Amino acid sequence: MKRINLFVWVVCTFLLSGMAGCNTNNLIDTNVEMPQRNWSYVDKVKAVVGIKDNTKAFALKFKLRHTADYRYSNMYILMHMSGPGLPKVTRRYEYKLAESDGQWLGKGSGNLYTYVLPLLSEYHFPQSGNYTIEIEQNMRDNPLREISDAGIIVAGSSTVPR
Taking 80 as the threshold, does the pLDDT of residue 52 lie above it? Predict the structure, then answer.
């Protein structure tokens, strides 16, 4: 009986500590795997976020993973956003991914490098409702090779990972 109680206690402690480490303020945290690690213009990363309280500030982030064989030191993307009270807006971003000596700036794991990059911080959506956010690669190469996956995070601005 004591072993069962100990087992239940260990399992409950593990589950509670796991839930405490979760970021529950993320409204959206998408990740889209690119077919054969090729990001084509038509393979847009899309997220629909429901905003209930437009008085709150949000942070929007772009997630990217590429292999060590990615041939550029930067990345250009287009972010499209539309929704109630917001005509379709398009913004172009450039992100530096490597130092001039070729050292990747992302977090490495094996052959993959991961980035969480800023799009908008302290952003207030104009109205409550559903907003569509799309990210497309905007490099000259189509498809852009050695991109493993990309994603979008929308979260309360004080809870977004850096």
Answer: yes
